[in-house]
Amino acid sequence: MTVVTAPEKTPTTPEAPRGARRTVHPLVFNLIALVLGVTIWALTAVAGLADIPGPLSVSSRARELLADGTLTQDALASLQRVLLGFALGTLVAVPVGFLMGWYPVARGLLEPYVQFFRTIPPLALIPW
């Protein structure tokens, strides 16, 4: 007769020692930050520390703009501008990148401009 010896089953996750701290789910911190931010915003608006509308008036106005279609129309117009800018930038940048990679002369001529424009923060390029 053969005796089969199997290893003893061990739990895959070790037990936490007594008195160990439980970890808090990361979304709890996100929720706390969101509630704290909206609370500070509301208190700032009520106290008159800044000339800003409160969260309730902003959400009310957003519902109005959403109901009459203005918010959707303006958001789609903004999205169209962003996508058009991305497409035009891609149409210019990809061929220029290939030229710079293939021809050292093109790289020498265009590299200073590429490096110059890389240092400008994207928000600085927004027309006011």
What does this structure look like?
- It is a multi-pass membrane protein.
- This is ABC transmembrane type-1 domain-containing protein.
- Its main location: membrane.
- It is found in: Cell membrane.
- Keywords: Cell membrane, Membrane, Transmembrane, Transmembrane helix, Transport.
- This protein has helices spanning 26-47, 55-67, 70-102, 104-118.
- The protein folds into 2 domains: 24-68; 75-120.
- The model has no long low-confidence stretch (mean pLDDT 89).
- It is mainly α.
- It is flat, with a radius of gyration of 29 Å.
- The protein is 65% helix and 0% strand.
- Helix 3 runs antiparallel to helix 4 (104-118).
- It contains 4 helices and no strands.
Summarize the structure.
The chain has about 130 residues and is mostly helical. The protein has 2 domains: about 25-70; about 75-120.
Which helices and strands appear, and what pairs or packs with what?
Blueprint: H1 26-47, H2 55-67, H3 70-102, H4 104-118
Membrane topology: Multi-pass membrane protein
Keywords: Cell membrane, Membrane, Transmembrane, Transmembrane helix, Transport
Protein name: ABC transmembrane type-1 domain-containing protein
What brief labels describe this structure?
128 residues; mainly alpha
Counting structural domains, the number is 2
Structural category: mainly alpha
Order of helices and strands: HHHH
Beta content comes to under 5%
Membrane topology: Multi-pass membrane protein
Organism: Streptomyces antimycoticus
Subcellular location: Cell membrane
Keywords: Cell membrane, Membrane, Transmembrane, Transmembrane helix, Transport
